[in-house]
Amino acid sequence: MDTLNCLSRVLLLVVVFSFGQRSQVSGIVLDRVYVHIINELGPYQKLTFNCKSADDDLGRHVLNYKDFYTWSFYVNFWDSTLFWCNFEWETSKGKKIDGSFDIYDAQRDQDRCDNQCAWRIQRKGLLSFNSNKFSWERIYRWPIPDAELP
């Protein structure tokens, strides 16, 4: 058996076994994932953030109340795609609130939010839509006690 034929069979086996473990194999199905961030901090509250992965830096963004930001990408073959975001905002009393959160983790989110991952950024924390339960879930709280939030 020549080397090319052997390599083709190995690749075919990897693909077949990967399909057996998941309903979709990222990078083969090529479903684009969309992440949506919505500022729900309150009227006149600006949300500043920067999101990154190991490969991409999406830059600094500022959202006014009710505005949103969306980006898209393909999950890598190993389902290890991870985007994290640093968020900051200022309370009406001038207190700076900030935190860093994993906003897309392929291991957590592929089945939970499929290819549309929506995040509502609120004073009490970050809510994400779970498409399996068809409901919003608070995934993260701000790294300060709720009693200190306005």
From TrEMBL:
GO terms for cellular component: extracellular region. Residues 1-27 form the signal peptide. It is found in: Secreted. InterPro entries: Self-incomp_S1. Keywords: Secreted, Self-incompatibility, Signal. It comes from the Eukaryota. Pfam families: Self-incomp_S1 (PF05938). Its main location: secreted. GO terms for biological process: rejection of self pollen. Belongs to the plant self-incompatibility (S1) protein family. This is S-protein homolog.
